[in-house]
Design goal:
Helices cover 45% and strands 11% of the residues. The strands form five sheets. The chain has a four-stranded mixed beta sheet. It is built from 22 helices and 14 strands. The chain is α/β, with parallel strands linked by helices. It is elongated and about 110 Å long. The longest helix is centred in the last third of the chain and has 22 residues. The protein binds glutamic acid. The site of glutamic acid has 7 residues, from strand 10.
């Protein structure tokens, strides 16, 4: 058959040649070794941890090498598209420090290699589709859904491989007359690749993460263009990543199954193959076994979850880095205050099997990250969170920034900073008692009579002097302890607990509960200093009256 005739028949309006298109996408002028990588999400509106991982890897590889990171929107499946999804994605990733050099933006496209939304690139794909047809490397297929389903059923019954190949590829070698007849009848068609591969053949291939792979050739005549003329992922991937000069394709390893086809397609099109960085899935422990994080079962997959819980962005970023490169933690220990971008990220160190997402570890990392922040920063981030998720608390924080900052400064700085807060959601429980409206009524240990507690509190009130330094203040607490027959000698108490009604810790707890409503609080002396004499005394008196 004269394939050029077929090409003109299928694409009568395509007059550009591949060379014309190539001329519009000249090679990028970048330093030797610069990585060009991209994110190519489908705009489904759900931004998840996997997107962040993929984005972070792509971003580090590009920017660490003086290269380019761009955003291409894979909107070929119009049915799945959610309005505003691209904007949400851009904003969310930006929030996590992933900024694109070019690509889709809130206000259209930015960059010389666009359009960056695939539906706007239909003309470009058609030029390359026409070339493949003219070379006998692609052909139209008029099979209906029903025919394809029945083909599948036959394959299932015969225990054969699924797909459009060999004897099942019924439109592969049809005459131009047959094709014309269908076209004239207005029948819809898809464009299929004419595979010359055989599953008998294997070859070696190197993936940046997975290492040496043995690839079995593809023998399926996959679809390149759907019946609406919009490309499949495979065809768009080859054309776009070639024209946009992507050097490294960072993507989920669910694409490994069609990698043989992608390799074949790049070759058929005469394109240089990019390097592939296939990343493993994020998993979690479910009982004693691992499984992939699932959109349906695991709320922690969505990035909105971390925002609502109140994980600082730095903490999530930091945790993901520890997941991706096992030497990150050592680096961080040696460089506690350096920006994370100074770490030398290596895609080669990614775990080919993927990573186990450990919520407890994230919480731990977050505690450490928050512990390194100064009170001003903690205040600003906490307030930002509260404004969105707890407006009442936000009002309190904003009502008296000095008070809030003084509270948040407790135990901060120094060699061993306190690690009380892992997420902003916990801050209210930690410091809410400073605000009278959030103060809870204390519940004293039943081991002690109300009289005992009252006596201790009364004694404290007698001695309390706001100008005492912390050691004088504590000496007074110890004095009360002795006066009441309690002990300050913890060793003696441990040796013979029945010899004393209680210890200095119990006396401190009575006072702490009276002032804060809780058995746990930041340093009590400092709490009183911040509350001031009047509020401290008023709280203790109120508790005594209500006992
Ligand atoms: N649209 C594809 C996805 O969301 C992109 C994969 C790729 O990065 O090539 O999975």
């Amino acid at each position: 058959m004269d394939y050029q005739v077929l090409a003109d028949l299928l694409f009568p309006n395509v007059t550009d040649t591949p060379a014309d298109v190539e001329a519009k996408f000249p090679p990028r002028e970048l330093p030797e070794g610069a990585v060009v990588s991209r994110m190519a999400p489908s705009p489904t509106g759900f931004v998840h941890l996997g997107n962040l991982v993929q984005g972070l890897i792509s971003e580090r590889m590009a920017h660490q090498s003086g290269g380019v990171l761009f955003l291409r929107v894979e909107d070929t499946d119009a049915k799945r598209e959610v309005p505003g999804a691209v904007e949400v994605l851009i904003d969310t990733l930006k929030h996590y420090g992933i900024v694109f050099d070019e690509g889709a933006t809130h206000t259209g496209d930015s960059g010389a290699y666009g359009p960056y939304r695939q539906r706007q690139r239909a003309d470009i794909y058609h030029v390359f589709a026409k070339k493949l047809v003219a070379e006998g490397q692609a052909y139209p297929c008029f099979c209906t859904e029903e025919e394809l389903t029945s083909m599948r059923e036959k394959q299932e019954a015969a225990k054969e491989n699924f797909g459009y190949y060999g004897k099942y590829a019924v439109w592969r070698d049809r005459s131009i007359e047959d094709i014309k007849a269908e076209l004239d009848a207005g029948k819809p068609w898809v464009l299929r690749f004419r595979s010359t591969g055989s599953i008998e053949n294997q070859y070696k291939f190197d993936d940046v993460v997975k290492g040496k792979l043995t690839i079995t050739e593809n023998d399926i005549d996959h679809v390149l263009l759907k019946s609406d003329g919009i490309p499949t992922y495979h065809f768009a991937h080859a054309v776009d990543d070639h024209l946009m000069h992507t050097t490294h394709v960072v993507r989920g390893d669910e694409w490994m199954a069609t990698l043989p086809f992608h390799i074949q397609l790049f070759k058929a099109l005469g394109f240089k193959l990019p390097k592939y960085v296939h990343i493993g899935p994020l998993m979690k422990m479910d009982g004693t076994s691992k499984r992939k994080l699932s959109k349906r079962k695991d709320p922690e997959l969505a990035l909105t979850f971390y925002k609502a819980e109140g994980f600082p962005v730095e903490a999530v970023y930091e945790y993901i880095m520890t997941l991706l490169n096992s030497n990150y933690e050592d680096w961080r220990r040696a460089n506690p205050t350096a920006p994370a971008t100074e770490f030398k990220f290596s895609a080669k160190k990614l775990n080919p099997a993927g990573n186990l997402f450990d919520y407890a570890k994230l919480t731990d990392v977050s505690k450490n990250v928050i512990a390194t922040m100064d009170a001003d920063k903690v205040y600003a981030l906490l307030l930002q969170w509260a404004k969105e998720f707890d407006s009442d608390f936000a009002e309190k924080l904003e009502g008296n920034p000095e008070l809030a900052k003084a509270v948040l400064a407790i135990g901060r700085g120094g060699k061993k900073p306190r690690k009380d807060i892992a997420v902003w959601k916990e801050a209210k429980a930690y410091m809410g008692f400073f605000y009278d409206e959030y103060l809870e009524k204390p519940v004293f240990d039943e081991k002690f009579s109300a009289d005992t507690v009252k006596t201790a509190l009364a004694k404290f009130l007698e001695k309390f002097d706001i100008s005492d330094d912390s050691s004088v203040w504590f000496d007074k607490v110890k004095a009360i302890t002795e006066e009441m027959g309690f002990t300050t000698d913890m060793k003696a108490y441990k040796a013979d607990p029945d010899a004393f009604p209680g210890t200095v810790a119990d006396i401190s707890t009575f006072i702490r509960q009276a002032v804060t409503g809780k058995t746990n609080s930041p340093d009590l002396y400092t709490v009183m200093q911040i509350l001031g004499y009047d509020r401290t005394v008023a709280r203790i008196k109120a508790v005594m009256e209500n006992m």
